[in-house]
From TrEMBL:
<dbReference type="Pfam" id="PF13679">
    <property type="entry name" value="Methyltransf_32"/>
</dbReference>
<feature type="domain" description="Methyltransferase">
    <location>
        <begin position="66"/>
        <end position="343"/>
    </location>
</feature>
<dbReference type="InterPro" id="IPR029063">
    <property type="entry name" value="SAM-dependent_MTases_sf"/>
</dbReference>
<dbReference type="InterPro" id="IPR025714">
    <property type="entry name" value="Methyltranfer_dom"/>
</dbReference>
<dbReference type="InterPro" id="IPR052220">
    <property type="entry name" value="METTL25"/>
</dbReference>
<protein>
    <submittedName>
        <fullName>MET25 protein</fullName>
    </submittedName>
</protein>
Amino acid sequence: DDDIFSSAFCENSEKLIDVHLFALAAKYYSLSNLGVCTPLEDVLEALKGNSQGAAGVRPDEFMNNKKSHEVQVMSELVDNIANYCGIKQVIDIGSGKGYLSSFLSMQYNLKVYGIDSSNSNTNGAHERNRKLKKHWRAYQNRGRANLKIQSLEKTNDRPVESEIKYKTIKEELLNNAKSPQSRDQVIMQDLVPSGGFTEMDTFETRTETEADLVAQTKSHEGKLSEEALAILNVLPADAVEVFSSSHCNWGELCEEEKMQRKMTSLKTKATKSSESNLYFPLTSCITAETELSDIVTDLEDCMMVGLHTCGDLAANTLRIFAAKPEIKAVCSVGCCYHLLSEQFENQEECCDKVWGFPMCQYLKDKGWWCGRNARMSACLALERVAVGQMLPTESLFYRAVLQVIIEEMYGVTKSDRHVGKTFSKSSSFIDYVRRSLKKLDLDDSKLPDRCIMDYYEKYKHRMNELEAFNMLKVVLAPCIEVLILLDRLCYLKEQENIAWSGLVKLFDPVKSPRCYAVIAMKEESC
C-alpha cells in the first residue's frame, strides 16, 4: 500500500525515518515482485525451439564465465526466435569484440552482422575470429576422432554368441562355395530371420560394415569440413591458409582438367560469399535515424539483438526495430543507465533530439525524469551485495573526499573530464588525489601532502555513513531499473505492428546484474 510505504519518510522534513519499511517498499516495487516478467522457460516453450548447434562448440573455452553464461543463454533464445520467425540474418548492435555474434554464427549457422561504433572493437573482433579459426581446426579433428571411436564401438557392441554362429555359418558357406545357387540359398535363409537381428546379418555385413564405416567417416569428415570451412569464413580470405588433404601435381593435369578445377574453385568461392553462417564485424555509429540498409548491403528479413547495449543505444535499437519492416524481432539487454539522455532532466525544450528516456508516451505526457544520481544507482547490483560481494567503500570514500577538495581548493563544481579507475592504480590517498588532479587537468603543486591528509582525517569518521548511504542506494536500485525497463516495454506496447512483447529475465543476476531482456516480435504481415 502506497500510504503505508510513505510513512517510511517524515511528513514534514521528508527524511527517512524507517529503514526497514523503506527496504520492504523497494522490494515490493522491484521487477521480480511485480509479476510483469515472462519466464524464459515459457518463452522457449511457446517458440517450440529444439535447435542444436554444431557439436563441440563451448563458449567457456573462448570467454570468461560471465560472458560465457550470457552468450550461451541469449544465443539459444535468439536462435529460437529466428527459427520461429523463419529468418537467418541477425544484426548484433553494439557487438563489441563479437562474442555473441561469433557464437550465433558458429553454433546456430546464422548470418550475423556485428555493428559497433568503435574501430578498436571491430579490429578486436577480427583478431578474435582469427583465433577462433585456429581453435575450430582442433574441434574438426576432435570430431573426426570421436566419430571413429563411436562407430567402432557400435560395430563391436554385438552379442558374444554371434561369434559362435558366425563360425558355423562360415563353414557351411565354405562347403557350398562351389555351388553359387546353394550359397545364395543359405544366405537367403539366414537373412530372413524369425525375429530380431540375427548373427547372419553380422557375418554378411561385417565386410560391408567396415567399408561403410570408412565411407561414413569420410562422409562425416566431408560434412565437418564443409561446416568448419563455412565457419572459418568469418574472417577475410587472407587471414588463414586452408590446406587440402589431397595433394596433386598440377603440372601433370591436362588443360581441360585444369580449367574444370578452376571453374569449381570459382563456384566454391561464390557459394561461400552467399552462405548463411557467416559473421561480419562492421564499424558504424547507430542512432534512431540509422538506415541499416546503408550499412548492411544485403539486408533481408532479420532480427536485431543487443547484449548490454550502452545508454541510448538500447532505446535506439527498439526504435529502429519498430520503424523498419524488414526487422521482424528484437532481443535487447541494456546497460549503463547512467549514460541515458533524459528529455526532462534539465527542463530543456528540444523537439528535434531523440532521447533515451522516456520512450513511452505515458511518461512523456507526465514529463517524467530520473536524474543522473538515480540512474547511477540503477546500475548497482543488489543481488551481488546480497551474496557478500560488498561495495568498494574505500574507493567510494576516496572519490567523495576528492570532490570536496576540488570544490573547496579549485572552485570546480562540474567537469567533462573523468577520474576513471584511478583507485586501483594508487598506492595511497595522497597518490590517488594527485593522479586524479592530473586527469582533471588541475595543478596539484599548490596542494601539499599535509593538506590532502587533513581532508582525509576530517572525513574519515564518516566512512560508515557513506557505506550506509550506498547500501540504501543499492536497495533502491531495482526500483529505478524497473522504471527504465517498463518505459521501454510500454513503448513497444504502444506500437501497432507488434504481435508480442515482454520482459524476460535471461541471466543469473549474480553473474550478470543487467539480466533483463526486452523482447518483441512483429505480426507476420509486417
